[in-house]
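tool_call: predict_structure(chain=1)
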Amino acid sequence: MKWIHIVSMINIGIVCSYLSLLICHRKMNDLQKSLPNDLQKVYQKIRQKRLFYYLSGLLIAFIIALFYWKFNSHKPIYNRLSITCFLFLVIPIFTYKLIPIKTYFLEYVQDETVKHQWFRVYQCMKYNFTLFFLIGFIVSGILFQLFDQR
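tool_result:
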């Protein structure tokens, strides 16, 4: 298997992971709407900060991708596109994970039932993210093997 196929498999796995988060998204929106106004404001503030971290990662990925395209114009377009997708999918995740998070929403929640419900949503997202990454990675690997043999 070529290295670029592995990069593509990682890309497909990450895209599947992001799509899997939609499964838990409705639960999260319902919970957020059921919060009192003060907690909704806290939640929105934390959400905006995390979105900023993610967008910062996208900006870093964009800058790196520009340099990559400038210095690798001789490589096939499929390789360049695969690496660019990889950068745009992976760098925001690392940026988000590496920037220290100072405020957690559950620190503000006093009701144990609400805490438990939010924790279940988090578990759902974490489980689906990992599971769908593996499914996307493995299925795309099988397809690459099948089509590579022809």
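agent: The helical segments are 3-33, 37-71, 77-98, 112-148. Proceeding to next step.
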